[in-house]
Automatic annotation (TrEMBL):
The lineage of its organism: Bacteria, Pseudomonadati, Pseudomonadota, Gammaproteobacteria, Lysobacterales. Coiled coil: none annotated. Pfam families: Peptidase_M24. InterPro entries: Creatinase/aminopeptidase-like, Pept_M24, Peptidase_M24B. It comes from the Bacteria. Residues 17-185 form the Peptidase M24 domain. CDD domains: APP_MetAP. This is Peptidase M24 domain-containing protein. It comes from Dyella acidisoli. SUPFAM superfamilies: Creatinase/aminopeptidase.
Amino acid sequence: MSDHGREAVGQRFDSALMLHARDRSWAALQGICERMHPGISEDEARAQAMQVFAELGMERLWHPVIIRIGPNTTKTYRERSLPDVRLGENDSYFIDLGLVFDGHEGDVGDTFVIGQAPERLACAEAARDLHRDVANMWRTEGWSGQRLYNYAHERAEAMGWRFNHAIKGHRVSDFPHSVHKGGDLGDLEHEPAKGLWILEIQITHPTEPFGAFYEDLLAEAVP
């Protein structure tokens, strides 16, 4: 498929509605975060998430709600969580949402720490910092998707974290983006267009069983 085809959109596509879906998705993520507490399981957290979505008027999910706690924060979206994991007193978790509002797809993710867990907090902050750094290279240098992910790998290693190469970003659009077969951002050979691509970052501690995840739309504005 040509690069142009990889960035195709539907007849209903509206860039303003993409930003609206992004904003609503971040609001949903924050609403879930407010309901997280020590002892909660991933299944219980997902049930709480559905209540948040209903309050915000979400139309549908375009990918399953992913909430990873503790050792499961090292796993990608394709891997199953270890069973019976509950949020500890000094622990971390991440939330990954793929929601549809007004026919447009949002996709956001972030990592949070509760209690006293300085290494986990440093990991969460590193994922955000790395995402911000890579997104800035897109805004200021116009790098291709491939170069952005090569840079992300180099920076993560220099920061002392392991970079998850299975996470390479992807398209979003008016629902469903999958009909356009956009593929991975990390394979894109040209500069990604704004408002169409999700930059995903996942890192893990080099020796301990925890990691961090952050994702957001490549766009001019920041939430």
